[in-house]
Structures are given as C-alpha cells and as structure tokens.
Amino acid sequence: MDEKELDITAEPLKIEFGSFLYNFIMDEGINKRFQNLIENLRTEVKQQKKIEIPAINFVNNTTLSQKEYRIIIYGKIITDTHLYSKDNMDRAVFYGIERHLRKYLFYFDKDFLVTQEELEVLLHSQSREAYRILHYYYSTIRPDKKKAFHWLKKLSYYGCAIDIRLLIFSYRKGYGCKQDSIQAEKLESKYFHCFTYKKNMF
Q1: What is the tens place of the pLDDT at every residue in 78-107?
Q2: pTM for this one?
C-alpha cells in the first residue's frame, strides 16, 4: 500500500471492533489504560519523529466477529486481527494496536500524505471537489489558517450552507483573516437564504 491508496479526505484513524471487544475496550478502567498507552505513544513519536497521531474513533462494527478488530487509516484497512483467547485480552489488544500504529506511523507524516505533484494538480483544478480537499488539507493535515480560509472562501461560492456558516465563523473570529463583522453579517443573510431555499425544497 502507498499514499496513492489513501484518501486524505477520509477519517484519519479509526478502529472498528467486534461487539465483544468493543464492550471490553469501552469499559471505563480498560479504556482509561488504553488511552494512557496511546497518549504516551503520541507524545513519544511527536518528540522523536515530529509526527502527530490523530484522535482515534472507536466503532462497534457488528459485521466483525466478536473478538476481531481492524485499524483503518485514511479509509484504508491496514490490519484485521482476530483474538482467539480471552487470556491477557487487554495486553493482546493494547500492544497489538500499538505495534501496528508504530509500523504505519509514516502514514501520518504530513509530507507523505500529499506529494507536491498532487498539490499542483489540485491547485490548478478549479472544481468544488479540489477546493474541498485543499480546505481540508490546510485545516487538518498541514494546518495553515490563511490558506484554509482562502480555499474555504472559494468553496463558499458554490452556495453550500455549511461552508457559508464556517466562513461566517471565520470572519467573526478572525480565523485565517482579519475580523470583519460586517462581512459576516452579509454572509449570514446569504446563509439563511440558502437554508430557507433548501428547507422549502422538501
């Protein structure tokens, strides 16, 4: 698997569990120990490798067998693991996940996720999808408030109420731009127009 198989617009890190393992891992005591383990790993790799492990979304996937879990990074399954014994269950889950995260840490390297060539293609693609990816990229993967605002502004031209609401917030808070309450008010009227229009369609 290489970066071409990753979807940078997908959820960065998700772990799906079969029902038995999900209930096990969500136990307050077990979950607290697991979160401590991940936080220690997160601190270590940030200091040593300058890589940030994103927040983990835990999901109960009823299509998995009871004691199976899978790790998904940017929409790509990197491992399927089935635990055959209840002995040392917490150790098996904890360190199995830690081992796989260490192995695939490079997928969270900002330079790996999007190559310069891919960025160039997106920058010259005047489409809503390109603007959406670029806004996501500069908001989440390689944070740059000014660039994120630039692409959000282009996104808002398409009239999506969600994008306009985020743009209003940016103008009000000065997120990536100078604070501009007048512009925020103008956009707010446009936002409510969009909302009313969409609501009347149904």
Answers
A1: 888 888 776 778 888 898 899 999 988 888
A2: 0.56
Tell me the β-bridge partners of 59: 16
- For the record, the structure tokens of 4 come out as 């071409």
Q: Is there a contact between 81 and 68 (Cβ–Cβ < 8 Å)?
A: yes
- In order of 64, 116, 135, 191, the CA distances from 148 in angstroms are 37, 17, 5, 20
Q: How far is CA 106 from the centre of its chain?
A: 16
The helix (H) or strand (E) run that includes residue 58 is strand 57-60
Half-sphere exposure of 67 (CA within 13 A, CB side): 10
- 56-80 burial: b if 16+ Cβ within 10 Å, else e: beeeebeebeebbbbbbbbeeeebe
Q: How many helices (H) and strands (E) does the chain have?
A: 9, 4
Question: Are 104 and 52 contacting, i.e. CB atoms less than 8 angstroms apart?
Answer: no
Cβ contact 14:78 at 8 Å: no
Q: What are phi and psi of 73, to 5 degrees?
A: -115, 120
